[in-house]
Amino acid sequence: MMFIKDVVEEYFSAWDRAFITKDPSEIKSFMSEKFVGYWAHSGLDRPQEYDYHYDLVSVLNQYQDATKNFKVESISPRKNGQEYIVMGCETAVISGAEYPAKCMFIWREENHEWKLIREYIELER
């Protein structure tokens, strides 16, 4: 099984490939079917919630020139290493403009693979 830092790097590489191909299947392969995400920014009173079944194709089709990168700030094991909390800063570059966000990802071991179970993304702009 891969180290969690490598899994996170591969997850963000999958996003970059999907921005080009508009195919979300590789992104989905990292997600648990129990996945739930929360996305917010200062203009929202409450985060927007989405889950494993949200329309990633529509998300990808919104962006013609986009990439994502992620800088890990901390990795904390829990449940005897069966889960990890990964915190850091994601930067989406969309048509040359940077959109930084603070993030927390919860990864869980499922059938000997790391799956994303939850994410919290707070856009800094």
UniProtKB/TrEMBL annotation:
InterPro entries membership: DUF4440, NTF2-like_dom_sf
SUPFAM superfamilies named among the record's database cross-references: NTF2-like
Pfam families noted in UniProt: DUF4440
Domain DUF4440: 10-116
Domain of life: Bacteria
Protein name: DUF4440 domain-containing protein
